[in-house]
Write a structure and sequence with these properties.
alpha+beta, Porin, twelve-stranded antiparallel β-barrel, 21% helix, 55% strand
């Protein structure tokens, strides 16, 4: 009897000291995780639910592959030239109506980005033009460039230079220069939120020739939510104290890997519009977006 009790105690101690080894990752599951590339989150979750005994090994495999991809990305960025490693999208919206009213309009936009190891570059340009019954109803052009210096994955400094022409807001051109700090409050594969703030200088030439130079403060945010694999919600907004604020809200649906449809709502508010002009201008549009 004593021997039996002693043997059971030894067996229990051995079991506690040497836990069961995790089951290896099934070959088919490993192949799926490797093939998923950057989009491994869903595959890993499903694989762990289907093979709970291999959960630890699956996490180890996913972490190892992520580290390899990150090392390869950094090496590519180190070797990239000035015109390499850019990504972006082009947007086209056109409307033409006849009948009681005859409207023709076009909206063109392009956005480029290069996210390097220390520096991030952003370039944007937009054209919004519309004629209604032979009368110009919208006439806005804008372009900007933003440079970020990254301290880490979340904190960065920014420098922004922009140009805009909007005769329906009362000015023939406006130059904007701003710099300050930015921070990524949320940084996930399916959700992000970046905020920036800093001083801003603007030089505006109004219709009629009057010039205005102004020093103020500027704050902006960029928000994105990938609702599903095919649907994404975005919001970009900026405000200049005592000046104007802008907002672009968009819902983008992927039609193919490169082509998407987009419904967007633009809002532009000028604190001091010219006489006879409204302070707030809005535009709702449907467009096609090509990513590259």
């Amino acid at each position: 009897m004593k021997k039996t009790i002693f043997g059971a105690a030894v067996l229990a101690a051995a079991t506690l000291a040497f836990p069961a080894f995790a089951a290896p990752v099934p070959p088919a599951v490993e192949a799926m995780i490797r093939a998923a590339g950057d989009d491994t989150e869903t595959v890993v979750r499903v694989a762990k639910a289907a093979h709970p005994g291999s959960a630890a090994e699956i996490d180890t495999l996913a972490g190892s592959l992520a580290a390899q991809r990150e090392a390869a990305r950094i090496e590519r960025l180190k070797q990239a030239g000035v015109f390499d490693a850019w990504s972006g999208s082009g947007e086209l919206g056109v409307n033409y109506t006849t009948g009681n009213t005859r409207d023709t309009g076009v909206a063109l936009g392009i956005g480029l980005a290069k996210d390097g190891i220390e520096f991030r570059h952003k370039i944007g340009a937009f054209v919004d033009w519309q004629r209604s019954n032979g009368v110009l109803a919208r006439n806005r052009y804008a372009a900007d460039y933003e440079l970020n210096y990254k301290f880490n994955e979340r904190l960065y400094l920014y420098a922004l230079a922009g140009w805009e022409r909007n005769t329906f807001a009362g000015f023939t051109h406006r130059f904007t220069e701003s710099g300050g700090a930015g921070y990524s409050l949320i940084k996930r594969e399916d959700l992000f939120l970046d905020v920036t703030a800093g001083p801003v200088v603007q030089q505006t030439r109004y219709q009629g020739g009057r010039m205005n130079h102004e020093l103020s403060a500027r704050a902006a945010l960029d928000f994105g939510w990938k609702i599903s694999d095919d649907l994404e919600f975005t919001e970009s907004a900026a405000v200049v104290l005592g000046g104007q604020w802008t907002s672009t809200t968009a819902l983008t649906y992927a039609l193919t890997d490169a082509l998407s449809s987009r419904a967007s709502f633009d809002l532009i508010h000028e604190s001091e519009p010219p006489l006879g002009r409204r302070a707030t201008d809005t535009a709702t549009r449907l467009s096609l977006v090509y990513g590259f």
